[in-house]
């Protein structure tokens, strides 16, 4: 695929039908699969296949790449330190199983190629090659150094001082603005997705890089390839699944909103708070609690400088496609860096030595180091408001936290329709659910007892007696159930639900005036007498005779069933 081609991506990878469209454009004849073949492919797709990408043991030769060591491991992929045979340069090689339904590797490569065209972004690793085989798929990219999350744990008190934190924030802010203007949002910013450059790479070794574009999405696209700045936002979606990390995701993600540029800055704010110490909601997994805590400035900014108050206020007021004020965020971080007595050339907390004179001489000044902040102030794509969006402005209202729709409920939409209501209605739903579970358990017990009664064949006298006793007990229970249904009106009103709709007195008074039924009020006393007689029968071993159901004789026990 030509690097100049800008693709549109869905949240889980390239949009469906893209491959078929390319084949149609190229004139290829694609064989249509029969219904039987489609069912077979679906069955194979659902089968658990061994993840070959995670089974590779180093050293290993993969085509023209020599994999020497493991750099990291994800849920579906592994990253190796590899060297290509032709030129002998070391790169990071990311390998994943190509038999999975969604290919994160191809999606990530497409995102990276879109970001790198027409001008490279210094804080993003450069993709070099992508290969897909029937078993695995892999791609090579720029080899980077240590992880920011690991460096924080090795620092004194497991936190970064203001000078290091502010310079990391400035570089990540520069990277986010750059990818936003290419029409991409990251949706998963956190310390583990930030890496320093490799120590042997002269150009990148002190730069902070953003990695992990598996959850990235194209929020705006370009219809005119001759002018990359003419971008148009994709329409907002009303129903989206949760994307990102519970700890660092935007509060809008917990509320089930479509994510945009503002949400990457929310994640950056939470990342800076974590680098400064820890997040106050660490370990919390409930979406409603997380959303309320993340929108409370007193909780979020408890240990942060006061200058971050206006940053959070601005993020709360932003609408989905409104342009964030990158320049204001830049001024807050730049002021914090100067107040801590640091400049971009100073060493980080995790570095042992200052830069030498030779390193300072060959060092290139980056855009984020400019005091004026011209890059952060300019708006290159000019998307700021609803004038270019396809959704109405009234749909941009911030959801009410007391009546919000949780993103977790959206995933299991069919099962939790009644649960996504006010607290009082949720309590009724829980009670009804428990009542249904108890009733279904009772039905299962009756089925098991009936099955045992009819399948069991007694052989001696003692077993015949126990069998006859169990049969009479079963008949007595059925008769009692019929009598109760006459008095309480307890017939099933809904499937799987048993409700006694009226009290005994109301039901008795109702039947007192109905001559057709002619059921006296005190008939429930007869039921109690019958139950007492039944208990005596169990103690004495005698048979209990009912008018509605004849007793079981001994001759029927010798046959296949009663």
From TrEMBL:
A Pfam family matched in the record: Pkinase
Stretches assigned to the Protein kinase domain: 65-337
Origin superkingdom: Eukaryota
InterPro entries per record: CK1_Ser-Thr_kinase, Kinase-like_dom_sf, Prot_kinase_dom
Any GO molecular function: ATP binding
Coiled-coil region list: none
Region (Disordered): 541-562
Classification via PROSITE patterns: PROTEIN_KINASE_DOM
Name this polypeptide is given: Protein kinase domain-containing protein
SUPFAM superfamilies hit by this protein: Protein kinase-like (PK-like)
